[in-house]
Structures are given as structure tokens and as C-alpha cells.
């Protein structure tokens, strides 16, 4: 998985007054959990743009001004309710031999046969919870929808991998191709045309039979 480096400064004071001063200066107060004790630091708001405003998943290297570096993942983020500015971010420190859980994006590839025939692709989950050691975390989970026909579904059990586990029930549907109203209308019209064609053929046969002379009528009279 790709990693983003964020340069920050360790915070000595964590009171409300100092936190407000940091935000006024364009800094975001942050905390790293998961180590021996919580570590408070701050970094410019712009430093988090590639981490926050993206659909991709990333791990983070937090490089502090004292020379220390911490590998972490973003655990929680708070935004201002009006301006949407970042108010606070919580990170969780990660270790190479310890498994962690992250939300990983789901990407679909290919052209579904069912969609080409008028069905609709439904994707109720854009991300999935994945558990693995940091080096085994995928950038995304890929699903090839090419063979999916109308009514077909992809379950969690079909996405199992040796490198990681999915923290969801095996029978959970990740995506499916559902029958659309357009496809139903097309089918009904096709059926009606088929019935009309059959009735027309029967009518033509009956009419031909009415015009043809019967065996009795064709026999000469004595």
C-alpha cells in the first residue's frame, strides 16, 4: 500500500487555548494512539490534502521536527460543521508484525453481460473492511464484473485472499446486476411479438384451410 509522509511538530501544550491558536495559524492538532502513550503533534492543514481528499487508502509516515518517525493510519477526523475545515485528526500507530483493520476501496473492471443486456449494476459497498499486517494491505480490491448476467451477485466469500481477511459475513453481497424496468419492458414486447407471430401463423393456416376444397367437395358427382 502507498504511504504518505506528513511533516509535523510535537505539541508541548494541549489545552484549548493553544489548540485554538494552532487552528488560527492554519495548523491541525493531531494525536497518535497505539504506542506507549498518546503523542500530540500538529501539521499544516494542506499537508493532509492527499490523505483526506481522496478515495484511495494510504498509510502514513509522521515525521516530527525532533527527528522521530511513526508509521500510522488515520483513525478518525473531525471537520468544522460550516466551513468543512479540518479540526482534528486521530492516528493509530502501526507495527509491521501486528495486523490492523482498514477500509479499502472496491474497484470494478470489465463490462457486465447483464448490464449490456439492459440490467443495472448495484454496488452497495464502495469500501470493505480489510484486516492484515501493514505490508499485506492492498491499495484496492478489484472485482471483474464481465461474466455477471442479470440476477448474478458477487459475495464476500468470492473475494477471499491469502494475504488478508475481510471483516464481513461471507454471504454479504458486494455487487450485483439487477433487472431494470427497461429490460422487463423489452422482454414483454418480445413475448408479445412472439405470441402475435404465432397467432398470425395459426390464422393463416385456418384461412388457407377455409379456401381449399374439401375432399368430399372435390369428388365428382354421379
Tell me the major beta sheet. Answer: 6 strands, mixed, barrel
**Percentage beta strand:** 35-45%
Whole-number total of structural domains = 2
Shape summary: elongated
Helix and strand content put the structural class at alpha+beta
Mean pLDDT: 84
Oligomer type? single chain
Low-confidence stretches: 184-193, 208-222
With strands numbered from the N-terminus, the spatial order across the biggest sheet is 1-3-2-6-5-4
CATH topology name of the largest domain, in short, is Ribosomal Protein L25, Chain P
How many helical stretches? 5
CATH top level assignment of the largest domain: Mainly Beta
CATH architecture of the largest domain: Beta Barrel
Helix content: 10-25%
Distance between the amino and carboxyl termini: 102 Å
Radius of gyration (Å)? 32 Å
Characterization of this structure:
23% of the residues lie in helices and 36% in strands. The chain has 222 residues and is α+β, with helices and mostly antiparallel strands. It folds into two domains: 3-93, Beta Barrel (Ribosomal Protein L25, Chain P); 100-178, RNA Polymerase Alpha Subunit, Chain A, domain 2. The protein is elongated. Residues 184-193 and 208-222 have low confidence and may be disordered.
Give a topology summary:
Layout: E1 3-10, H1 16-24, E2 27-33, E3 39-44, H2 49-52, E4 59-64, E5 69-79, E6 86-93, E7 100-109, H3 113-116, E8 120-122, E9 127-132, E10 141-144, E11 153-155, E12 165-166, E13 173-178, H4 181-211, H5 215-218
Parallel strand pairs: 1-4, 2-6, 7-10
Antiparallel strand pairs: 1-3, 2-3, 4-5, 5-6, 7-9, 8-13, 9-12, 11-13
Amino acid at each position: 500500500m502507498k504511504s504518505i509522509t506528513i511533516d509535523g511538530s510535537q505539541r508541548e501544550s494541549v489545552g484549548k487555548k493553544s489548540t485554538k491558536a494552532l487552528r488560527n495559524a492554519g495548523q491541525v492538532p493531531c494525536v497518535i494512539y497505539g504506542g506507549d502513550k498518546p503523542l500530540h503533534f500538529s501539521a499544516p492543514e494542506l499537508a493532509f490534502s492527499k490523505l483526506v481528499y481522496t478515495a484511495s487508502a494510504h498509510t502514513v509516515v509522521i515525521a516530527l521536527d525532533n527527528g522521530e518517525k511513526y508509521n500510522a493510519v488515520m483513525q478518525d477526523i473531525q471537520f468544522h460543521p460550516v466551513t468543512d475545515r479540518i479540526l482534528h485528526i486521530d492516528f493509530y500507530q502501526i507495527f509491521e508484525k501486528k495486523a490492523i483493520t482498514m477500509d479499502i476501496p472496491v474497484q470494478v473492471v470489465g463490462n457486465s453481460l447483464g448490464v449490456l443486456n439492459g440490467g443495472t449494476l448495484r454496488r452497495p459497498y464502495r469500501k470493505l473492511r480489510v484486516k492484515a499486517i501493514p505490508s499485506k494491505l492492498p491499495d484496492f480490491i478489484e472485482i471483474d464484473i464481465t461474466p455477471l448476467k442479470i440476477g448474478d451477485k458477487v459475495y464476500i466469500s468470492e473475494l477471499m485472499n491469502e494475504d488478508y481477511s475481510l471483516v464481513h459475513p461471507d454471504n454479504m453481497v458486494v455487487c450485483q446486476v439487477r433487472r431494470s424496468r427497461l429490460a422487463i419492458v423489452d422482454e414483454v414486447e418480445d413475448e408479445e411479438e412472439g405470441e402475435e407471430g404465432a397467432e398470425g401463423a395459426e390464422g393463416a393456416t385456418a384461412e388457407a384451410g377455409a379456401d381449399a376444397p374439401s375432399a368430399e367437395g372435390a369428388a365428382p358427382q354421379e
